[in-house]
Amino acid sequence: MSHHIIEVKELEYRYADGTAALRNVSFRIEHGESVGVIGENGAGKSTLLLHLNGCLLATKGTVRVGDIPVLRDTLKQIRRSVGTIFQDPNDQLFMPTVEEDVAFGPLNMHLPPEDVESRVHKALEAVNALHLRNRPPHRLSGGEKRTAAIATALSMSPDILVLDEPSAGLDPQARRRLINLLDGFKHTKIIASHDLDMILALCPRTIIMHQGTIVADGATADVLSDRNLLAKSGLELPLGAQGCPICNAKHPEK
Prior knowledge:
Layout: E1 6-14, E2 20-29, E3 34-38, H1 45-52, E4 60-65, E5 68-69, H2 75-81, E6 82-85, H3 98-108, H4 113-126, H5 142-154, E7 160-164, H6 172-184, E8 188-192, H7 196-202, E9 205-210, E10 213-219, H8 220-223, H9 227-232, H10 245-250
Helix pairs in contact: 3-4, 3-5, 4-5
């Protein structure tokens, strides 16, 4: 079985206080798929993503990456296959320079110095960020931090990229660069976001979560055009599908 495959079966997760965050979540993502995960705040998107690389472990059910179950004693293997970009890039950037952040993972794999250098160069080159190599992360813009965070994941040569709200806080040009960058990656991708237009641009398949469960899983064009389904899930049509607000004001729906 390919390491690019993720399979989740009857996943449940409860917080320490007993609150159910995920309930009976099941899906399978195949090699090379790009899948969006959407839902209102508190739907369980981030909690789900944190199970895919073992930051959280299931209360019940299973998560597998290829043939490997996500368990406490398989985390090292899982995190070599699954590159995660957290919602806040500051959670990933903690070294004095971008170069040191990107090198952190490969160094902890105990790779030879020349291999670490090669991985750092290739990861920064892939995101067009070689010019950021010697910059301190805290001096970067939001878009630059996001780019550097993606490079830290790429330096581990993952089979799967998991991204939580990757376009959050980006200006329009930085957002467009990010979309173009992600569109060029042939990895299996799972992207959780409120940016439905980005999901429409990048993900042929979309999963909708609501109150910790999956309420829809299908072709993005169908899911994101279903006004009633979106409304029941606390969502609206993507902006690109809503039409011109001035025209709509002149010709309201009857």
